[in-house]
Specification:
By secondary structure, the chain is an alpha+beta fold. The protein is 39% helix and 16% strand. It has one domain (3-186). The chain is built from seven helices and eight strands, in the order αβαβββααββββααα. It has a four-stranded antiparallel sheet. A two-stranded antiparallel ribbon has the order 1-2.
Length: 187
């Protein structure tokens, strides 16, 4: 999925959500779904994968969306994890180990969702409670993450993994982040 396709498809999601929010008397709810984009300066960061940077500049990611995700950090850079939290909070060895991670957003528990520039732009969740040691795959790329978010908002949640398996097979694995998060929406 390219940035233009995502923009068009996401606009349809926002329109549907806005209609439902208006009917419920809470039109401002749909504003959280608006896309936030990265500044063009990200295109000049040598360690940031160029295709991922172009997608974030052209399309971006939703400010907030199911399942309890926020991507407002995209508009701040994205910044490297150590820079985002402040280098003073890390040992030198941790700073080196975490240098390839750029913060795109957060899950509902406050764990950062990061692009791993050392792994061709994989999107991962890093557990903040264990010093960012635990790494869980979210999506294979920014574009795959965007497509997964569309699936969450357009198909029944019980069919999510089946649809995700088509566009991003590694992210559909039981040990990956999104299948467990979407399963909580079903319960």
């Amino acid at each position: 999925m390219n940035a233009n396709e995502f923009n068009s498809s996401w606009d349809a999601v926002v329109s549907q959500e806005r209609a439902e929010a208006n009917a419920a008397g809470v039109p401002e709810i749909a504003d959280y779904l608006k896309l936030v984009r990265a500044a063009p300066a990200i295109l000049d960061i040598p360690s940031f994968p160029p295709d991922e940077a172009r997608f974030l500049v052209a399309a971006g990611l939703p400010r907030s969306c199911a399942p309890f995700l926020s991507f407002e950090a995209v508009a701040r850079g994205p910044l490297q994890l150590v820079q985002y939290y402040g280098a003073h909070q890390f040992r030198a060895s941790d700073s080196t180990r975490l240098a390839s991670f750029y913060v795109l957003g957060f899950d509902g528990a406050g764990n950062p969702l990061c692009l791993d520039s050392a792994r061709r732009g994989e999107i991962v969740m890093l557990d903040h409670e264990d010093g960012f040691e635990t790494r869980t795959l979210v999506a294979s790329s920014v574009a795959a993450l965007a497509e997964a978010l569309l699936i969450i908002h357009t198909v029944p949640h019980q069919d999510f993994v089946e649809h995700l398996r088509i566009c991003d097979p590694p992210a559909a694995d039981k040990a990956a982040f999104l299948p467990a998060e979407v399963a909580m929406l079903i319960e």
